[in-house]
């Protein structure tokens, strides 16, 4: 159990006896846990995502929310065609718990279609098929007239050209979106390393947009201002400057063409619902940003050593997904420091379509990675760009993973078959070293304390 302490006696702890109390720190890895043992004096902080109010019943709270806040929505959708946009299977969230309430609120609609918002992810996956099964089950129980359950395909679907944003992004949207009078976006909200937050706007762009639209929008990820905890709808003026997120909002507005958009936003921990709100998309999103800031963003004094776990499956299914954890928390490690990255990655580097412009470009010399992507951005290359910028400013990034050593080394990282040995090496080199441990790092973001 994380935080457990004991007096050090013999065995593997003999080297620490003179240092006093030994502490166990558990971090999730794949379907299991990696446990570290070290003196408590060397643990600067252990950071985990918010786990919800003690003794709270989020499911009952959701019923109250849908019964109350969705009352006017039921009247609004009566006799209308509704398009429901739900997150795809790359997200870890309690859709099975939420969908029955969504379907109940839609009983009076003339027809309903569900689009699974894959963006550029693969459409036909076991997890997306499972989401389809959950929708069908909830639909059947509610007696809902559902005309379509479809996983968006950014390459194969038919698209409508709705013009360009002020930043030049061509907005090509799934033609199925035209068959709606009202939209409802269902979205788990968390910090996002270049879009500000994962939020219901992303269910439109990139969620149901063509590859070209996503590529043009994501080129803005190279800008320093496109970062976490910044969004044009944020209630705090100082957190509104994010050009990529602003471009997403413009794209969504072109898609909507003035049609109403409502959102069910939630914060979750795995399949547990922690918090939810329902309402017009802007108001619901803005409230979720404040709750996310309060619960999952912390200010820390940067440490020279950082241990990062994305939080186990599905947050470390592959390197493409797991990298988010490093970007969200890079401010917590000093220049010239080291990171130990715990990411099981049973599915390897990432989906096949990402390899050429994600992993393959990362294997070039770091300066070449950064220079070439600045000159020639293509979709997915913001990933190696940000990876290279981080690796370049550190002494070493260790990686404990199922990915083959040769692939880890080609990406400028160092394989760590024994994570405890890495921490032991840090302590041997610097007995008073301070280490920050982060679990569930895909849902938290750390900021450096201002000096």
Topology:
Blueprint: E1 5-7, E2 21-29, E3 32-39, E4 43-47, H1 58-68, H2 71-77, E5 81-87, H3 95-105, E6 111-117, H4 126-142, E7 146-151, E8 159-164, E9 170-174, E10 182-188, E11 190-192, E12 196-198, H5 211-218, H6 243-256, E13 261-269, E14 272-280, H7 281-296, E15 297-300, E16 303-308, H8 319-329, E17 333-342, H9 359-362, H10 366-375, H11 382-393, E18 396-400, H12 405-410, E19 414-415, H13 419-429, E20 435-438, E21 445-448
Parallel strand pairs: 4-20, 5-6, 5-10, 6-7, 10-13, 15-21, 16-17, 16-20, 17-18, 18-19
Antiparallel strand pairs: 1-2, 2-3, 8-9, 11-12, 13-14
Helix pairs in contact: 1-3, 3-4, 8-11, 10-11
Structural summary, described in words:
31% of the residues lie in helices and 27% in strands. The chain is built from 13 helices and 21 strands. It has helices at 58-68, 71-77, 95-105, 126-142, 211-218, 243-256, 281-296, 319-329, 359-362, 366-375, 382-393, 405-410, 419-429; strands at 5-7, 21-29, 32-39, 43-47, 81-87, 111-117, 146-151, 159-164, 170-174, 182-188, 190-192, 196-198, 261-269, 272-280, 297-300, 303-308, 333-342, 396-400, 414-415, 435-438, 445-448. Strand 6 (111-117), helix 4 and strand 7 (146-151) form a beta-alpha-beta unit.
List its traits.
single chain; 451 residues; alpha/beta; 6-stranded mixed sheet; globular
Question: Can I get a quick summary?
Answer:
The chain is built from 13 helices and 21 strands. It has helices spanning about 60-70, 70-75, 95-105, 125-140, 210-220, 245-255, 280-295, 320-330, 360, 365-375, 380-395, 405-410, 420-430; strands at about 5, 20-30, 30-40, 45, 80-85, 110-115, 145-150, 160-165, 170-175, 180-190, 190, 195-200, 260-270, 270-280, 295-300, 305-310, 335-340, 395-400, 415, 435-440, 445-450.
């Amino acid at each position: 159990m994380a935080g457990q302490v004991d007096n050090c006696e013999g065995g593997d702890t003999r080297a620490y006896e003179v240092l006093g109390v030994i502490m166990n720190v558990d971090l999730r890895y794949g379907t299991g846990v990696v446990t570290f043992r070290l003196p408590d004096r060397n643990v600067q902080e252990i950071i985990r995502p918010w786990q919800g109010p003690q003794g709270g019943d989020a499911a009952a709270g959701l019923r109250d929310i849908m019964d109350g806040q969705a009352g006017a929505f039921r009247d609004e959708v009566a006799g209308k065609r509704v398009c429901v946009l739900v997150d795809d299977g790359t997200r870890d969230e309690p859709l099975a718990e939420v969908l029955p309430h969504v379907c109940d609120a839609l009983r009076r609609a003339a027809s309903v279609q569900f689009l699974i918002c894959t963006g550029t992810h693969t459409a036909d996956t076991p997890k997306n098929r499972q989401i389809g099964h959950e929708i069908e089950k909830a639909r059947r129980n509610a007696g809902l007239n559902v005309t379509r359950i479809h996983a968006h395909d950014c390459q194969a679907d038919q698209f409508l050209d709705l013009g360009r944003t002020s930043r030049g992004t061509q907005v090509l949207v799934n033609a199925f979106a035209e068959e709606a009078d009202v939209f409802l976006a269902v979205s788990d909200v968390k910090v996002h390393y270049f879009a500000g937050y994962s939020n219901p706007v992303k269910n439109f762009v990139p969620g149901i947009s063509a590859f070209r639209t996503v590529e043009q929008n994501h080129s803005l990820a190279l800008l320093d201002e496109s970062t976490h905890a910044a969004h044009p709808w944020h209630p705090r003026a100082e957190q509104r400057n994010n050009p990529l997120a602003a471009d997403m909002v413009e794209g969504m507005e072109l898609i909507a063409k003035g049609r109403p958009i409502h959102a069910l936003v939630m914060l979750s921990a795995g399949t547990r619902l922690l918090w939810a709100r329902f309402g017009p998309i802007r108001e619901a999103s803005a409230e979720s940003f404040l709750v996310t800031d309060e619960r999952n963003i912390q200010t820390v004094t940067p440490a020279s050593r950082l241990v990062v776990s994305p939080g186990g499956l599905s947050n470390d299914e592959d390197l493409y997904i797991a990298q988010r954890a490093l970007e969200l928390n890079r401010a917590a490690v000093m220049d010239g420091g080291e990171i130990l990255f715990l990411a099981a990655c049973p599915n390897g580097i990432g989906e096949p379509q990402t390899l050429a412009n994600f992993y393959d470009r990362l294997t070039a010399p770091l300066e070449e990675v950064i220079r070439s992507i600045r000159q020639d951005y293509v979709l997915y290359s913001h990933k190696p760009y940000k990876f290279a910028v981080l690796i370049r400013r550190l002494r070493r990034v260790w990686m404990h993973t199922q990915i083959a050593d040769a692939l880890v080394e080609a990406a400028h990282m160092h394989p760590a078959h024994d994570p405890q040995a890495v921490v032991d090496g840090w302590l041997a080199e610097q007995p008073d070293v301070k280490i920050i441990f982060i679990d569930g790092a895909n849902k938290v973001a750390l900021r450096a304390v201002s000096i």
